[in-house]
Amino acid sequence: MLIKGEKKKVFGLKRKNALNRHHDDSFRKDQPVIHTGTNLSLMAQPVLIEDGIAYTEPLLCPREGIETEMKLKDQDRALPGSGVIGKIVYELPDIKIGSNPNSLETDGSVGNVMYNNYQFQEKEHLEDETLQFESRFECGNLKRATQIYPYEYDLQIRHDVSAKGHTQWYYFSVSNMRSDTKYRFNITNFYKPGSLFQHGMRPLMYSDRLAKEKGIGWHRVGEDVAYYQTQTQTIAGNDIEMLTITTYTGTNEQIRLRRGVCITCRVHPGETGSSFMLQGMIQYLTDDCLDAKILRDNFVFRIIPMLNPDGVIIGNHRTNLAGLDLNRQWLTPSRRLTASIWHAKAMLKQFIEERDVILYCDLHGHARKRNIFIYGCDSKQIGRGKVKNQGVEYCTPSLLLQERIFPRLLWKNSSVFSYSDCDFKVQRSKEGTGRIVVWREMHLINSFTMEASFAGSNFGRFAGIHFNPYILMVIHYKQVHKDHLSNKKKERRKYPLLSALDKKISG
């Protein structure tokens, strides 16, 4: 099977086990010498039919959300137990000018410099389903093929000779495919920011079998075709980094059962104290101590350290380069103007679908209040913590006050956290914030904004002292997260705490 990016007069070869198939009737026997001007040895050209069928091939209607879905699947490769194979099954060496200008390979005895330097995956046994790639034919340009999963491959296209870049055309052959099996090919090094693949264009394929059995030549194929940047970028072109922390061992089932925690930071550039809080958290979660290991063994932490790098770089206090407050854009984020929020929201939705996510927290700084505290979402308000029975809304005991457990545990385990300053009102002016959108749309009870005063504390051992990086970094999360581990004994501990909270609130 041959695959290429656009129709033009080219020749190709469906490669099987042998390096040369010159005695096959489908290959030309009167092959003229081809001068490549390089050390690249070409193989004989196949005879391809032109079916002459007059039919139309409609553009593909891109499925909504396909690019985000693909990007999140790519990110999941970093998770433990992902099953990534990572095996190079085809690789060509660098092409050198003038090494072997007359490089037609006709019988294996001439122009065979490539035999010693290139890597090719031979079929190891009859049941071996590894695909076999080839591009050493006229117009071919596949540089490397890496098997990621049994039916998924990353492909790297060769740069234009004597140039860096210009990787947009692709042409290669594949063999050893199985019928009724879907394969995914990821071409990883296209250089243009956009493509017609985003607007319904599909790749071209030539199948030896279809040509022989049905007289069908080149035709358009592909069900889920997407063109996207592997790294989310801002208006200025800065990357939005994401960090995943967990223990990278264990069975797939053990890892799947781990609960999730998502932390974001620096949506407001001027709130620098939030980065010190996050730094302390990351240093603790990656520490060698037993408590940190317990957290990594039981949770998957996804962390976006900087949602607004453009604003940070340019010295903004609150907005991005489009003049938008990103923490008011979560309801309807724009892929172009608020890309970090658009992708963070999509990532969090996918994260919640694949595992039990127990907490989302967005880290901030506060210019008017003292202490470190949390904004949450009251389960007694309409939209959360209620169900309907014959048209009458009432609060369910299993949800009542649960949003206050995490802040209460944090207060019990941290000398700089103030529970009395926490607020759980859902205000209309804040409905575009990450805290409220995640709580309302994704039904996550523990959806918080954590605030650290620009000044300092008015209670405890740090009363009357400015917060500094050390103080902001020593907020202890270990016991808080450990109390959320999924076992029945700890689940039973919630109810006395709920009773105590209820008395405190009503009293």
Automatic annotation (TrEMBL):
Query: What PROSITE patterns does the annotation carry?
Result: PEPTIDASE_M14 (PS52035)
Give cofactor(s), names only.
Answer: Zn(2+)
Which GO BP annotation is one of this protein's? proteolysis
Q: Which InterPro entries match?
A: Cytosolic_carboxypeptidase, Pepdidase_M14_N, Peptidase_M14
Which SUPFAM superfamilies does this chain map to?
A: Zn-dependent exopeptidases (SSF53187)
Q: Which residues form the Peptidase M14 domain?
A: 202-477
Q: Catalytic site residues?
A: E451 (proton donor/acceptor)
Give an example GO molecular function. metallocarboxypeptidase activity
UniProt keyword list: Carboxypeptidase, Hydrolase, Protease
Domain of life, per UniProt, equals: Eukaryota
Q: Does the keyword Transport apply?
A: no
Q: Pfam families in the record, alphabetically?
A: Pepdidase_M14_N, Peptidase_M14
Family, as annotated: Belongs to the peptidase M14 family.
Which PANTHER family does the UniProt entry name for this protein? CYTOSOLIC CARBOXYPEPTIDASE, CYTOSOLIC CARBOXYPEPTIDASE NNA1
Query: What name appears for this protein in its UniProt entry?
Result: Putative Cytosolic carboxypeptidase Nna1
Tell me what organism the protein belongs to.
Streblomastix strix
